[in-house]
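Extended Data, panel c. Modelled sequence:
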Amino acid sequence: MSLTAPPVLEHGLKPHLTKLAQFNTTQELEASAVYGRLRPEIDRVLNTVRVGEFASARPHVQSCIRALAWNIERGIRTDDVIDAIRSREELRSSDVLMLSEVDYGMARTRNRFVVRDIAEALHLNYVFAPCYLALNKGSGAEKNVVGQNQESLHGNALLSPHPMHGAHALPLPNGKDKMKGDEKRIGSQRAVVADIEHPRGMFRAVCLHLDAHSSQRHRHRQMRLVLDHLDGLSPRLPVLIGGDWNTTTHDASRALYSILGYWRRIMMGVRHVLANHYPYPERWFERRLFRELERRGYAYRDLNAPGGCTLHYNIRDAAANLNMREWVPAWCFWFINWALERTGGRCSLKLDWFAGKGVRVDSERGPRVVDSILESGEQVSDHDPIVLGFHCEGN
C-alpha cells in the first residue's frame, strides 16, 4: 500500500459546530435537520484513515522488534513528546509507536496535526484514524484555552520507520452518550490497524484506546469486537495490540456508579486496593477482559511489567481535579481526598497494556514502564509510556 496519496481529512464543518453542539443527546442530534444535512460529510471524515510517509532511510535492524505504546494526552506538549522520543534510547529505537489521544486542529494543541508533526520530526511513517469530531474545545481546563478549533478532530495513531500496509480503523461502540455533558463529540473510539513490514518478520500492529467513561463490561465488549475483527483478517500474521485500555477497575459510565465504586473500595481498605487492585486490574475488577484475551490465544502476562502503573493521580493536581469534575460530583472529592490522605495524597493505576498472539518476549528487552518523562520539571503526558522487545514466532 502506498502512503503517498493521503485521503483528505480537511472539511468545511467548522461553521456548523456550534449548531451541532446545542443538542444534549445523540438521539436529539441524529433527529435534527442540521445533522441530517451534514451527516454525509461527518461520516466521510470520521471514516477516513490518513496516512503519511516521512521515513527517509532504511532503519537499522535491531536484535528484536521494539514497540512503544503511549497516551500522549492530546499532544498538548507535542514538542516535548518529540524531544523525549528523540533523546531516550528506549523510546527512540521503537519499530512501532502506538499513540493514543492525538489531536488534529484543536485549539488546546494550537491547531496542530499532532501525529504528522511527530512523524515528520522523527522521520516516521504514520497512520491516523480520527475518532471524534469535537463540537467544543474539550473538558476541564481545556474549555478556557485561547483560540478556536479548526479541523476539530481527535483520534489514535500508529507510527513506524518501516513500511505499513493495509491500514484501516475499526469503530467501537460508545460506553456513554458523547453528547451528554460539557464535552460534546460526534463519533467513537477506533482501533487503528496496520501490517508492519519489518525485516525480522511482518506483523500486525493495533493501537487500541478503550473507553474511559464506561463499565468494565463495556471495555470487555470493545476488546471482544477487536479480537473478532482480527480473527477475520488475512493473511494470518503475528499480532501486537497496545494502548490505553482504561482498566481503572471502576465503572465510570455514570456518576452514581463511580460514587458507589469509590465507597466499595473504601470498605475494602484503601491501602489494600492501592496495592492489590489498581496495579493489578486483571486480578478481579477487569478480569473478563483479560480472560477473553487468553481464551482467544493472546498473551499478556509476560508482555507487561507486573504491577507497572502508568497513570498517577495526586489530590493536589488542580487540572486533574477539574477534569474529574466533568463526571464525578464535586462532593465526592471530600471522601476521595480523605481516603488518599492516608497514602500521601497519591494513587497509581495500570491503564496501559500490550497483548500479543504469535509473538514472544525478547530475553534482554522485556516489558517496562518508562517513568520520569519530564521537561522543565513537568510531565510530558499524564500517562507513562510502556515499551517491549519481542520476536515474531518462527523467526
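The chain is about 30% helix and 25% strand. This feature is highlighted in the accompanying rendering.
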